[in-house]
Amino acid sequence: MTLSSSLPAQPSAPASAEPAAWAGQWPRHALRIASVAICLLLWQWASQHRVNLGLVTFQNVPAPQEVLAAAWALAQSPKLLSHLSASLARVFSGFAVAAAAGILLGMLIGRLRWLSDVLLPPLELLRPIPAVAWIPLAILMFPSSEISMIYITFIGALFPILLNTIHGVEGIDPRLIASARSLGSGRGAVFTQVILPAAAPSIVTGLSIGMGTAWFCLVTAEMIAGQFGIGYYTWASYTIQNYADIVVGMMFIGILGMGSSAAIRQIGHLLMPWYLLQR
């Protein structure tokens, strides 16, 4: 007998609950859209009037319409697909390896104290090192510049996933594990029916943050030897002082990072119905 079979079945939500929930979310969505619109208006005002606050100046910051024109020019360029495909391949390759390594190591470190004593100190020593500091070593370690760039995004995504997984496993109530064992569950059943479901919310949070940091490290990664990629496009625009294109590259990275992180959270919610019922 397993722990899940002894729990009462949760009643399913009525069919009308989902539209009602969406209707209740509209004020929040409207507020979010309004906040973005206000930021754009403030940006337009500051760049149009060349605001100079001493510490912060908008004298050389392009206006939103200039950025929009540059974005439209990039959208019509045949290089856009090459930039996007290169960046997506690097980010998702590094993220996939980081997710596998981070979740596996996090599970083991969270459950085995001796492994935590062995692995966690060197990992904590490496964690504060910024991605840009890894560039010389990445060039020396890997013969391929493409693998070096993937490694930089891997480093950026690894530690949020690892630490959130560890915290999720360590935060499990020991009584849940003891109850499962008292009901006759073996190690495999305890892992799949207790440990993994209980740690899943923290793991999903780590995956979402890790995806964001992978995009954060993209410019650093593509500084190595990139010839295509949104990060390379942003850096190349900076070197030739094309300010509008710099902002376009930043916006692409922000939109892609936000969208991929939101997709991970949504997939996590679909895979964790028990977590939504508890909220």
Automatic annotation (TrEMBL):
Membrane recorded as keyword: yes
Major site of localization recorded for this protein: membrane
Gene3D superfamilies xref list: MetI-like
Transmembrane intervals: 88-110, 125-142, 149-169, 214-234, 246-264
ABC transmembrane type-1 domain residues: 84-264
Keywords, comma-separated and alphabetical: Cell membrane, Membrane, Transmembrane, Transmembrane helix, Transport
Membrane topology classification: Multi-pass membrane protein
UniProt-annotated location(s): Cell membrane
InterPro entries, sorted: MetI-like, MetI-like_sf
CDD domains assigned to the protein according to its UniProt record, in alphabetical order: TM_PBP2
PROSITE patterns: ABC_TM1
Superkingdom to which the source organism belongs: Bacteria
PANTHER family to which the protein is assigned, alphabetical: ABC TRANSPORTER PERMEASE PROTEIN MJ0413-RELATED (PTHR30151:SF0), ALKANE SULFONATE ABC TRANSPORTER-RELATED, MEMBRANE SUBUNIT (PTHR30151)
Similarity field: Belongs to the binding-protein-dependent transport system permease family.
Protein's recorded name: ABC transporter permease
Organism: Herbaspirillum chlorophenolicum
